[in-house]
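retry 2 of 3: previous attempt timed out while embedding zinc ion. Reduced batch size to 1 and resubmitted. Inputs unchanged:
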Amino acid sequence: MSVIQLYDTTLRDGCQSEDVSFTLEDKLRIAERLDAFGVHYIEGGWPGSNPRDAGFFERVRHLNLRHARVAAFGSTRRHGITCEADHNLGMLLRAETPVVTIVGRTWDLPVERDLRIALAANLEVIADSVAYLRRHVDEVIFDAEHFFDGYRSSPDFALACLRAAAEAGATLICLCDTRGGSIPDWVATATRAARAAVSVPLGIHCHNDAELAVANSIAAVQAGAVQVQGTINGFGERCGNANLCSVIANLQLKLGLSCVPPEALATLQAVAHCVDELANREPDKRQPYVGISAFAHKGGLHVAAVQRMREIYEHIEPGLVGNRQRVLLSDLSGRSNIVYKAREFGVDLDSHDPAVRRLLHELKELESRGYQFEGAEASFELLMQRALHGHERRFRLIGFRVIDEKRAEHEAPLTEATIMLEGPDGEVEHTAATGNGPVHALDRALRKALTKFFPEIEEVSLLDFKVRVLGTEGGTGAVVRVLIESGDSRDRWGTVGVSHNLIEASWQALVDALDYKLYKDGKAADESACTPARAGEGP
Ligand SMILES: [Zn+2]
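retry 2 succeeded.
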């Protein structure tokens, strides 16, 4: 199986995105993750451009990467000076990476009108810079900037630039669609011409301005390129770079080429989400292959069909890229959705069971009020257990009060919450707590009260809290939906609350979160009690 090299530039080109910025620590973590994933090259940054990138190259040497080679990025020497005198080339060598990538012009028009140098002088700049770097570095990649535009404008000059780099010792020439405006057919034609012109291996680097970066990368590979440059999730300036997640999945699952081992491919979604998380970005639900909607089914008919034969509405088996099939609980839910969902929670339902009809009715009613259980599956499981088995919460609220006080313009407000609830044995607990806001105070008071009856509540931590205003009308009187994500050492779970009152909505989600902890621990205890100890196994 032929191997296609992956050259990741999330840490360099990806950082050109207007809303992406990584700290040095983030960059190191991403480098480790990409290495474990099986990326062949990691472009760490432009050492001449900022101190953070220089710091990265300093630190990355101590990371002990097992697989990936680190590349430093820069440009060819300036016209009119020697390579030795060029500050940028000097900084590139100081990064001490095994690979250096330099970008140079290959489109005649900008050379003449922007650089304002003769075309022959541009060829010299390329040849000199590549030859100089090759004397110091194992691998020198030449990024042929604007190659596809250059090839359409003046094929002779564009190819002459590639030859200059090849003859000077470039170990790979990467053809760049710098403006991102090419279409796959142009890319394939120009890549074939480049192959005929030089014997050095070729790479492809595409931008996504015409939303064709992935398609163009695939076209170049089919025309003979052996390396794809891109970024995780397609981060990059303007409309972004080629999204490596899609490139890898397409090359590997559709064309049968090899980029990473199959077991690494199964972590693709985790890698994509990890990079989003470090960029402090909500993962794109609709991202092909790795988005959580990529294999989600909503319409009742589709759900019934995928249960019989998943291939009807799924182009690959989702597990191959670490994703999974989801059935959405929505107002389109049919009975088969409920049955499917229940099975996910280990409950076998018959779609003709009257309880299913009851649950569906309740679900539709809640959804019409703004509840949404995608992302709040713990709330759904509790709802299902109530409808089917009469599950009851193990504590009862008698009342709560939240007081917010702000004494002066420049002072932070103080919040205090008091709560009264009845425990499982009828004992009443009355507790107060302060917090840095109403939800925080309420959460602390509730935990304090419940820990008395259920010490395991202490293991729960609140991981995420999201508020969404529903609808466009109503201003500050609008309905809000609160989603809370909680976790303990074993699991994570999401719960939901909806109300006109933010504190009430938060309260509902908080109560479900803690109730779910008690329910799931109870379930686990029941399961282990039902499993008889096997004789002969010790200790
Ligand atoms: Zn680029």
